[in-house]
């Protein structure tokens, strides 16, 4: 460790929502924390990271990732998926509870925390279950989960369909000061849908998931949020109408936040069909909520640019080969995307579809504020003095082609294989230590 | 005649003559007019073979055709088996029940196993839309889609087109009504592509919950419209194709009752009276007589249902022959 002499990230364009800085300055990190941001900082003996021609930002915060451990180690482990997160620029990851067993009791959370302390390459916060075994029937012991260190509650891909249960969960979580991250979806309306209901689903003869299934669920959850005064976080929003509903909820002062995935910002339902004349039925493009229409995608981009959408969260979902090498109806939903997230975001910036400053806010301060993580780690998601020494250095111009074989993640499941992207993570400092640089992870 | 076709396609083909080159037949959506013409012309030759006293040839001798059926089927499977045997191929019939599929073998492993055993062509029926595409990507054997989920049934569409052409010649400008559960029909979907390629005016008709509304307006040569009114759809129609309605549609609440369906959408003599003179009625089978089609229509003069079945053998012979020939080039 060079903790004493520090690390100097020199000459980059520093963009930081937390401090409002946007300029070519240096970042000095000492003893694991940000010690200063300014022009021509002197730091004798410090390790120098040359960031000229690069962008420097606070480390990214992911509100929604699947680490798969315990229970699904063939898909991913805390070690493999946090290394993937590191390579993707994410220095903080909130782990979704769809593990086996799921973290629905303090005992499970403590066991998970032990594994995290042992194996994680970045900071990991557990998200606890809303209901026991994520079954949507009986509430988990929420206060106990909060005391064990959970930063939010969620049943992940299983929406809390029972409105009464959802209402009580919001009330109890509000008293604990924690948000409920809800996959807003009406399972009855969705029936056995496997992709967005529309042009492509009808063309391919696949059962559709109507946009209305998400929209009605968001409307219900907003009504319950208003009724209870609870803190509602809408996970991976995918519809244009959903963005409008959340904007309306925010205007009326509800404690509501939301996230969008880089996949939904970058791709549409057309990915299931593929680029050829004959349909691909690309199982790697199967995800919940489904990839939707181009007009939905544009509304999501506008939502990030306007700040209605608080966070870009990956919903990183690694799967084993056999989970995807099967019939479309039988394929596991989810995209391994934590290593391509920044590349897709920067490509959208390069195309003029996404505003750079807004996008970086949605990767740093936005998510940290949505889950009020500053209460746990002061300054997290920013470069304020005393903030954790987590920095991402981004090369905004480098062009590269996605090759899943190169992923650190065990999940090679991406519909972006072969896709050329503009912009990549060049270096990552975690807790003051240069942990990743130019494709190499430092042990 | 068959020998002529074989010669034409392999050795002494004049420059520029259209040939079949694709490994698989998965749907009709990628077929060009020339592909369709080639298949149907070849089917004419096959029909001549079938009309001979011994309706068999040895063209595919030494080739192995596997029928791999994950769903029940009578006519499609039997039709393919008769077609393959009429061409001299060895035929192996496999069903999902009683096979390694029941032991949890994946589709990819199954087709790779069939390839290793020596299958040249695999005729596949599967309940999942897109399953034959997965199979085709993972084997060198040629895959013929014998119906996948609610997606496609290309050989049915080609035999339907063959039947229509034989009856009324070119279909450009002809009105073809497809009535019933169009949204969940693989037969309808594959028919739409061939009919549009031919320049027909396709009208899709059924209860609102059973219509693929996003298909309205597609097509360049022909046109595709969607309507809930059978009486207006059938007016001046040259062809009326009734689809099988499944009881599950009522159970899952897509239609209030079979009774209401029959009232609105049964193809019967009264409704047919509004069609064009000499209009005829098709059905891919198996029929629910008295439901989507009135019994007197199903067996009446306007019905070509049995003709469809008979033509199916010739068209499937043509497809087997073209795919097999493409493999040996």
Low-confidence stretches of chain B: 1-13
Outline the biggest β-sheet of chain A: 9 strands, mixed
Q: In angstroms, what is the radius of gyration of chain A?
A: 21 Å
Total helical elements of chain B: 13
Short description:
The complex is a heterodimer of chains A (443) and B (329). With 443 residues, chain A is of the alpha/beta class.
Task: Characterize the structure shown.
The complex is a heterodimer of chains A (443) and B (329). Chain A is α/β, with parallel strands linked by helices. Chain A folds into 2 domains: 102 residues, Roll (Urease, subunit C, domain 1), CATH 2.30.40; 317 residues, Metal-dependent hydrolases (TIM Barrel, Alpha-Beta Barrel), CATH 3.20.20.140. In chain A, 30% of the residues lie in helices and 22% in strands. Chain A is built from 15 helices and 18 strands. In chain A, the strands form 4 sheets. In chain A, strands 1, 2, 3, 4, 5, 15, 16, 17 and 18 form a 9-stranded mixed sheet that branches. In chain A, a hairpin with a 4-residue loop joins β1 and β2. In chain A, α7 runs parallel beside α8. The longest helix of chain A has 18 residues. Chain A is globular and about 65 Å long. The mean pLDDT of chain A is 97. The N terminus of chain B is likely disordered. With 329 residues, chain B is α/β, with parallel strands linked by helices. Chain B is built from 13 helices and 9 strands. Chain B has 2 domains: 167 residues, 3-Layer(aba) Sandwich (Rossmann fold); 145 residues, Rossmann fold, CATH 3.40.50.1370. In chain B, the strands form 2 sheets. Chain B has a 5-stranded parallel sheet. A 4-stranded parallel sheet of chain B has the order 2-1-3-4, with helices on both faces. The longest helix of chain B is centred in the last third of the chain and has 24 residues. The relative contact order of chain B is 0.16. In chain B, α6 crosses α13. Helix content of chain B is 41%, strand content 14%. At the A-B interface, α6 of A face α5 of B.
């Amino acid at each position: 460790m060079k903790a004493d002499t520090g690390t100097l990230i020199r000459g980059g364009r520093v963009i930081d929502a937390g401090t409002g800085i946007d300029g070519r300055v240096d970042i000095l990190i000492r003893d694991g924390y940000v010690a200063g941001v300014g022009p021509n900082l002197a730091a004798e003996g410090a390790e120098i990271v040359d960031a000229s021609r690069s962008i420097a930002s606070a480390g990214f915060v992911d509100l929604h990732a699947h680490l798969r451990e315990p229970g699904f180690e063939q898909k991913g482990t805390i070690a493999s998926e946090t290394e993937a997160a590191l390579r993707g620029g994410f220095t903080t990851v909130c782990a979704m509870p769809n593990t086996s067993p799921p973290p629905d009791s303090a005992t499970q959370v403590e066991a998970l925390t032990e594994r995290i302390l042992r194996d994680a390459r970045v900071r990991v916060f557990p998200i606890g279950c809303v209901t026991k075994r994520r079954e949507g029937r009986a509430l988990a012991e929420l206060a106990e989960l909060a005391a064990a260190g959970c930063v939010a509650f969620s049943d992940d891909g299983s929406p809390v369909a029972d409105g009464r249960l959802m209402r009580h969960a919001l009330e109890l979580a509000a008293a604990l000061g924690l948000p409920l991250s809800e996959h807003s979806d009406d399972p009855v309306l969705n029936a056995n849908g496997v992709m967005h209901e529309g042009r492509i689903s009808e063309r391919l003869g696949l059962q559709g998931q109507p946009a209305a299934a998400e929209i009605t669920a968001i409307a219900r959850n907003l009504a319950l949020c208003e009724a209870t005064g609870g803190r509602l976080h809408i996970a991976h929003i995918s519809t244009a109408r959903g963005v409008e509903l959340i904007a309306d909820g925010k205007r009326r002062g509800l404690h509501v936040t939301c996230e969008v995935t880089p996949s939904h910002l970058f791709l549409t339902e057309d990915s299931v069909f593929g680029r050829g004349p004959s349909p691909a039925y690309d199982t790697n493009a199967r995800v919940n909520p489904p990839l939707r229409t181009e007009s939905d995608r544009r509304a999501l981009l506008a939502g990030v640019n306007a700040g209605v959408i608080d966070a870009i969260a990956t919903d990183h979902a690694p799967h084993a080969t056999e989970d995807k090498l099967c019939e479309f109806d039988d394929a596991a939903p989810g995209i391994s995307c934590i290593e391509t997230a920044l590349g897709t975001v920067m490509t959208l910036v390069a195309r003029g579809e996404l505003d750079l400053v807004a996008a970086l806010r949605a990767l740093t301060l936005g998510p940290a504020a949505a889950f009020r993580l500053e209460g746990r780690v002061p300054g997290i998601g920013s470069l304020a003095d005393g903030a954790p020494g987590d920095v991402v250095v981004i090369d905004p111009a480098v062009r590269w082609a996605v090759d899943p074989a190169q992923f650190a993640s065990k999940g090679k499941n991406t519909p972006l294989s072969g896709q050329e992207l503009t912009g990549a993570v060049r270096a990552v400092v975690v807790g003051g230590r240069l942990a990743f640089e130019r494709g190499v992870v430092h042990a | 005649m068959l020998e002529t076709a074989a010669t034409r396609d392999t050795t002494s083909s004049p420059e520029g003559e259209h040939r079949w080159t694709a490994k698989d037949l998965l749907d009709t959506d990628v077929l060009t007019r020339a592909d369709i013409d080639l298949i149907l012309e070849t089917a004419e030759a096959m029909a001549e073979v079938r009309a001979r006293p011994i309706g068999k040839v040895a063209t595919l001798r030494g080739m192995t055709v596997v029928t791999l059926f994950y769903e029940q089927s009578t006519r499609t499977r039997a039709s393919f088996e008769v077609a393959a045997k009429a061409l001299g191929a060895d035929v192996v019939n496999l069903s999902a029940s009683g096979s390694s599929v029941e032991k949890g073998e994946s589709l990819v492993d199954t087709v790779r196993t069939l390839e290793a055993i020596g299958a040249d062509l695999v005729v596949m029926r599967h309940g999942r839309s897109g399953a034959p595409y997965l199979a085709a990507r993972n084997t060198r054997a040629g895959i013929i889609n014998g119906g996948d989920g609610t997606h496609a049934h290309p050989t049915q569409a080609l035999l339907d087109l063959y039947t229509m052409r034989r009856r009324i010649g070119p279909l450009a400008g002809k009105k073809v009504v497809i009535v019933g559960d169009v949204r969940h029909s693989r037969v309808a979907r594959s028919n739409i592509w061939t009919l549009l390629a031919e320049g027909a005016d396709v009208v899709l008709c059924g209860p609102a919950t059973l219509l693929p509304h996003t298909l309205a307006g597609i097509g360049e040569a022909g046109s595709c419209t969607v309507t809930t009114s059978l009486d207006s759809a059938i007016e001046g129609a040259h062809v009326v194709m009734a689809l099988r309605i499944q009881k599950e549609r009522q159970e899952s609440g897509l239609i209030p009752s079979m009774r209401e369906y029959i009232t609105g959408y049964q193809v019967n003599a009264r409704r047919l009276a509004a069609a064009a003179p000499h209009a005829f009625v098709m059905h891919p089978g198996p029929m629910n007589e008295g439901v989507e089609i009135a019994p007197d229509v199903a067996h009446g003069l306007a019905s070509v249902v049995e003709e469809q079945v008979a033509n199916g053998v010739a068209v499937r012979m043509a497809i087997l022959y073209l795919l097999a020939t493409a493999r040996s080039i």
